[in-house]
Specification:
The complex is a heterodimer of chains A (about 120) and B (about 260). Chain A has about 120 residues and is mainly beta. Helices cover about 10% and strands about 50% of the residues of chain A. Chain A is built from one helix and six strands, in the order ββαββββ. In chain A, strands 1-2-6-4-3 form a five-stranded antiparallel β-sheet, with helices on one face. The longest helix of chain A has 13 residues. Chain B is mostly beta strands and about 260 residues long. The longest helix of chain B is centred in the first third of the chain and has 14 residues. Classes of the chains: A mainly beta (about 120), B mainly beta (about 260). At the A-B interface, β2, α1 and β5 of A face β1 and β3 of B.
């Protein structure tokens, strides 16, 4: 399984990144004000929003080429969690579209959302 | 060959421009967290939004002529993505469409300290043809190192127009570039890496439709040549800002599953 590419510095992400852990708890409230809670699914579902700015065109090409090889959300891959350094697998892109604005060298930027699948 | 024109500078576009790659899939998440995902394996779409300022009369006329010849959105033409690596599989020389005479090994040491390079054995060569107008300007580049004489980075129109540079024998990584500009009508460009008396280490071969080489960009199955691109508009607006000065916006689309 392929791994999401690192930046030229070896970093997995830049500041401004977001990590999200989602759980699903349902609550049923009764007339006597008591309530009952239960989980829709066990564990948590993690996702990451990576905002990458001031990329070189080489770094952007690596990420874009990876997105194309994964065909957006269609293929699973490994991600090194930028917070913990642990490898999370399998993950997918949470998007089928990637738009980038090509400008002068070192000014490229892109935002990607990745989720644990 | 019907192709999107180059500007007088040799550039394919002005910066900044926007590009999008799009796939198609459907996802259904149930309440228990289970997910059903279906991807459309055939659908792929690329779009480019190019904004041009201060085009000369000749540059504008070339664009207008292409728009007329294509009939707006009706017919296809070749588009060379600005700044992109026109080669396919830039880090896997054992892949088609590279043609290797002799032997090549991928996954070798590269100039960045990784293992994304290739090694061409002594006396071998690797070449790739690019279906692109041979009258345009191009820049080829690659990091190369060898200890033996006779190694070359070569660009040609697959005919008489040949430009090449010799690789020195210092055994040190160095980025070599070759610029190509010629009057030719073969409409086939060829990049060739030739090993001489010793093995040639290669990293990041790149071929671009512009006057000089830019930073390296990796490429896979689809390089920067889009043979069946279309205009995604049926009107081309010429905003005259002065004598011999034209502004316009162009939207292009490439959908291989639908052309």
């Amino acid at each position: 399984m392929e791994r999401f590419p690192k930046l030229k510095t070896g970093a997995a992400a830049q500041y401004g990144a977001q990590r999200r852990a989602r759980r699903a708890t349902q609550t049923a409230r009764f007339l006597d004000s008591s309530e009952q809670r239960y989980r829709d699914f066990s564990g948590e579902k993690r996702s990451w929003v990576l905002r990458l700015e001031q990329l070189t065109s080489t770094e952007l090409a690596d990420i874009r080429d990876f997105f194309i090889r994964m065909r957006g959300s269609q293929t699973e891959f490994e991600l090194e969690d930028p917070w913990s350094g642990s490898v999370v697998s399998p993950c997918r892109f949470d998007q089928d579209e990637m738009t980038d604005r090509v400008g002068s060298e070192g000014s490229e930027s892109v935002t990607l959302t990745i989720r644990e699948s | 060959m019907l192709a999107f024109p180059q500007l007088a500078s040799g550039a394919m576009a002005q910066m900044p421009f926007e590009r999008t790659v799009r796939f198609r899939s459907r996802r259904n998440e149930a309440r228990d967290g289970s997910v059903v995902e279906i991807g459309d394996p055939d659908y792929e779409e690329r779009t480019w939004q190019l904004i041009f300022h201060e085009l000369s009369d000749a540059e504008w006329q070339a664009l207008a002529d292409l728009f007329a010849a294509a009939g707006g959105r009706l017919k296809t033409f070749t588009f060379l993505e600005p700044g992109a690596n026109l080669l396919q599989w830039s880090e896997q020389l054992a892949q088609t469409p590279w043609t290797v005479a002799g032997s090549v090994l991928d996954g070798q040491a590269d100039s960045f300290g990784g293992a994304r390079g290739s090694r061409l054995n002594a006396g071998s060569s690797a070449a790739q043809m690019v279906a692109a107008p041979s009258s345009y300007r191009y820049a080829a580049s690659a990091w190369l190192r060898t200890n033996g004489g006779g190694a070359k980075l070569r660009v040609s129109d697959n005919g008489a127009q040949v430009r090449e540079v010799d690789v020195d024998t210092s055994g040190q990584w160095k980025r070599y570039t070759v610029a190509y500009a010629a009057t030719s009508a073969t409409d086939q460009m060829k990049l060739e890496l030739v090993a001489g008396g010793a093995a040639l280490d290669i990293h990041g071969p790149q071929f671009e439709a512009q006057a000089s080489a830019s930073a390296y960009k990796v490429s896979s199955a689809q390089g920067g040549v889009f043979a069946n691109a279309r205009f995604d508009q049926d009107a081309l607006v010429d905003e005259a800002t002065g004598p011999g000065r034209h502004d316009t916006r162009v939207k292009l689309i490439w959908t291989p599953s639908q052309t």
